[in-house]
Amino acid sequence: MNSFNSLGLRPELVQAVTNLDYDAPTDIQSQAIPQMVAGYDVIGQAQTGTGKTAAFSLPMLNNIDPHDPNIQALILTPTRELAIQVSNAVYRYGGQLDVRVLPIYGGQSYSRQITRLSRATQVVVGTPGRTLDLIRKGAMDLSHVSFVILDEADEMLKMGFVEDVEAIISATPRHRQTAMFSATMSKRVKQLAETYMHPEAMEIAIASDTLTVQTIDQVYHLVKNRDKLPALALVLEAETINSVLIFTKTKAGAAELAEKLLARGYPAAALHGDLDQNMREHTLRRFRSGDLRFLIGTDVMARGVDIAEVSHVINYDLPTHSQDYVHRIGRTGRAGREGTAISLVTPNEQYMLREIQKFTNQKIARRPLPTPEAVYAQRDLQFLTQLEQVSQQADLEDVYVFISDMIAEGNNEVDIAAAAIYLARSAERLRPVEMIRELQETQERSGRSSRRNKHRKGSGRNRAMDDKNMVKLKIAVGRNHGVRPGDVVGAVANESGISGKAIGAIDISQTETFFDVKSDVVNKVLNKMKTSTLRGTALNISRAS
């Protein structure tokens, strides 16, 4: 079996990973680290949760000079959460080398980051937008950079950062070493690699029958859209959950779901781009500490939140793209741990479920929803477990005295116990348990083609809708942004809270998209979507002239 000692790393780095209880390198680490230590450019692809951060951080730290105060390594990540996560990992690995690492991202003041950059800093971990801003302000000198690493390269390009990434890479020396790592590798990433990496770059793809790790139990429940919230409540009650990440399609949907769960008595909070950085970090601290058990967010959360003990990932909404499913469920079952991924699938989403299974080469089993009886049984079990723990560990002397006084006053022991249990379990009565009827599987036309045909301009249903009671709207995204009809329907319906049936013909050009909605909901759509984004781009919704 390989060890970190055999990979050509400095003793200080081997000691660092030993202190972190890393027993042996993973496949991506054992193959990528020697190649990067030797100076080769590397394109690395491996499942989420297999240690890609260490695979590029350790050889990078091995080859930089900790005594050189200049920026020698630049790591680009798609989100600020991931930038913070990676910078923390680099700091832990390089602690014995006295390497200084700085995360930079939007949401922090420029002056603070510029001040930090003026001091000795060997490694910068940044998001593309803020990194490029600081370069253009003359605050960040990349002329001494020897390493450029793109973490989650496919996500950065999908979010529309390709021009920023290219401008940043162009600001670094040509003789640098470049690496790209991700769980999925798109054609666009490979094109970027061909442009900016050496011809002899090593491509390392860890072979696997599936794109998801085998330690994750993947299941789905088939429910009506209106039953999603009570179905989620059943799952949260019946499963043995340590902490759970719940994914929605939109940030508005995340905020709304968090409010509904709180109203039902569940400790939940939303994490999305509208929160300022202090609130985001506060929410994550609460989640990591266990004060908050249910964290709700969009696909952005899938790339940056790394908590070791996430037991469950729940897809409240299926993602629009199969790659996002891989990154979502990769937040659990990490580093060999077991995890559970549960998807709530509506009949109209079954086509997407099939696409995900085809993309991941992984069968996702249907499981019946928990019954109310199962929820009540789980509640009883949890209460009895807590009761036993308290009786064995707590100092109950004062309680015994209190009970003795109540008995002396003529109260019955059983009545006292019953009243105490009733009070102790009062919070459960805030959480309704509903019976949900099981649905039958439906056989839809396969793939997105059926959805495209459904919304194609001039099709039967839409032709009738176009003729009366429809208003044409425009948004400032199109094919250049990777937008498809299903994206438009999902974004408009979820952000506005309207039915997909209220959306008519969709016409997508290179830079704009036109779509019809029923006249009685047009004002609602315009008001609700004023600040909406799609694929990282502001929609700027308006009536079509």
Description:
There is one protein chain. This protein has 545 residues and is an alpha/beta fold. The longest helix is centred in the last third of the chain and has 22 residues, at 372-393. Mean pLDDT is 83; it is low at 443-467.
- The CATH topology label of the largest domain is Rossmann fold
- The percent of residues in helical segments reads 40-55%
Largest sheet: 7 strands, parallel
Which runs of at least 5 residues are low in confidence (pLDDT < 50)? 443-467
Kindly state the mean pLDDT as a whole number?
Answer: 83
The share of residues in extended strands comes to 15-25%
What is the overall silhouette?
globular
Tally of structural domains: 4
Structural class: alpha/beta
Summarize it.
It is built from 22 helices and 20 strands.
Helices, strands, pairings?
Elements: H1 11-19, H2 27-37, E1 42-45, H3 52-63, E2 73-76, H4 80-93, E3 101-104, H5 110-117, E4 123-126, H6 128-136, E5 147-151, H7 153-158, H8 162-170, E6 177-182, H9 187-196, E7 202-205, E8 216-222, H10 228-238, E9 244-247, H11 251-263, E10 268-271, H12 277-289, E11 294-297, H13 299-302, E12 312-315, H14 322-329, E13 339-345, H15 350-360, E14 365-366, H16 372-393, H17 397-408, H18 413-424, H19 447-455, H20 460-467, E15 470-475, H21 485-496, E16 503-508, E17 513-518, H22 522-528, E18 533-534, E19 537-538, E20 542-543
Parallel strand pairs: 1-6, 1-7, 2-4, 2-5, 3-4, 5-6, 8-13, 8-14, 9-11, 9-12, 10-11, 12-13
Antiparallel strand pairs: 15-17, 15-20, 16-17, 18-19
Helix pairs in contact: 2-3, 3-4, 6-8, 14-15
